[in-house]
Amino acid sequence: MQEATLEQAQKLGLTEQEFEAIKLVLGRTPNFTETAVYSVMWSEHCSYKNSIKWLKTLPKEGSKVLAKAGEENAGLIDIGDGWACSFKIESHNHPSAIEPFQGAATGVGGIHRDIFTMGARPIATLNSLRFGNINDAKTKHLLKGVVKGISHYGNCFGVPTVGGEVYFEDCYSTNPLVNAMSVGVMKTGRTISATSYGEGNPVFIVGSDTGKDGIGGASFASADINEDSAKDLPAVQVGDPFQEKKLLEACMELVEIDAIIGMQDMGAAGIACSTSEMSAKGEHGMIIHLDKVPTRQKNMKAWEMLLSESQERMLIVVKKGEEKSVTDIFDKWDIHCEQIGEVTTNKMLKFYMHDELVAEIPAESLVLGGGAPVYEREYTEPKYFAERDAFQMEAITVPQDVKSVAEKIIALPNIASKRWVYNQYDSMVGTGTINTNAPCDASVVWVKETKKGIACTVDCNSRYVHADPKTGGMIAVFEAARNIVCSGATPSAITNCLNFGNPYNPEVYYQFVYALKGMSEACLKLDTPVTGGNVSFYNQSPDGAVYPTPTIGMVGIIDDISKCMTMDFKQAGDIIYLVGKSKNDLGSSEYLHKIVGIELSPAPYFDIEEEFLVQQTVLKLIHAGLLQSAHDIAEGGLFTALLESAKQRNLGFDIAMPDEIRPDAFLFGEAQSRIVVSVKPENATAFEQALGDCAFEKLGVVNSGELLLNQNNWGNITSWASIYDETIGNLMGN
Prior knowledge:
This protein is of the alpha+beta class and 734 residues long.
């Protein structure tokens, strides 16, 4: 085996220090194949070498947690009645920047595999998407490709896409963010672990053939995007949702026969990753014969096979003697199931090609928490904070024509309806989606065979995080929880996708550290432990880093789906209340940024105790049957929330604006800890008494279709709904 050179190691993304560390681990100089394996396994994407120190500070303990962060392919919580929920979110940013259709499609496929390798059946998909200016041709190309890729894979695979978010900011122009979340359910006690043990147990590769697509994908995801990145197109994988559907059904049958030791998806770093992680977890080793791996191309080299990220593949360790029962299942589904090796006790990975030993590596040395390097980067407060701190709201002129501002607000791409996007997704396949006609703030999916529902959401306002990473991190968690609460569910746990720029930049790393501090504080307050997720660094172009974007995926439990709460006003005459308090605050609002043109301002008003009280109170009110609707106030402020609640049934609203609050702050400010609810008149007294110590304001009443503010008629709901609903489609030329 010819020794690798330092120059080769550096071209593969390893530093000189890391190359020397590999020599110490092996007691010799690695060959090229071994160096290639270390390069992907020690990449940021696989090893979390620049983030693991802070990831360990996130709260992971919880009474409902069945699988903690890092223990399995995805998080797992107990939802009661003998059922568990598995869920996870991951990024596919860099591939989507280069090839949006396949990048997004394989992101969906990969996150689903993380769920069903655990023995859970996926029942819902969500996504969080970020693009540049929607008026740019490049952004339209990326948006069309990503949405088409998500819809193609999800619709063909047969799992509904039930929710998500889409934002447009200039900083995402070169480096869009594509985060995909999958939610699945299973009976408790039926988990398949991602482990390997038992000397002589056979190792099988199942699923699609291995090709050259995706080679080096993990390393590709650990580098900045630049004008030459298109040359890395082979690093983008190609997906086949029909093959994955067959693989899913075969894996569901495997759960029933108790024939396997462990199973793991071949995601980033392919065979190299699955063999090393399963072996390290089980404290065993493997002998793998790469020439037995089914391939799409002839004469593939050993390192190409080890690093390939071809989709729809699993590694399975089978109990010796159960080989036929396993292969029969995969034969039934017409899926490759080939034995490529066996488990050993010496904790070494030995890879052979035609009986020639091409790589010999200690499994533990490759993995997170084992021999992979851990770095603690320097961080310094961003210099742009000085501009943020110089902001003075008093210097902003109060608009004379508030109505015209409102018309502009609801036509902003970040606020306007995203139905151009979600109409391309099948949200009803599987017949489990509850809120297809009456929308909730979170998406609610029925757990069949029970009365339970799982409420799920993805949330993050990255401008808030940019303005104040710690406060923004807290808001991201609490906004997700607000959406869960407004649907009538109890927030249970989160997964996260942490999208940041280059960690070697001290200001970027400051954003990362303080966002995690804020997330931790919020999760502890809500008792929503972190069950896992993904870190995506290097979301950066020559123009700079993207906004820090710690996307939160949260799930909550509804014990009876017939009791879920929707956001739509139900009938004229109902009283509209604000649970929480209006604030003279414009910080980091869409109004301030996009209408007034203020780039930097403080994060919006947020108080953790106030927020917690509002959420707990609204959940209590829902469970008491005192609310007709509930909708949180987010981007666009109170006016947008009122419009979204009114337009569902072509109703209107008649509200009074207080003298002590600026009209632009009252209508368009994005201060947190506020929820708009509607109440039947006969329940008003009971409602107000049930609020207890929680602040509230009586805003006005629901009417039959007119928008009345301080008795000024702003017109019929249909014209406002038309602006809100059609903006994105018009901008996309449809």
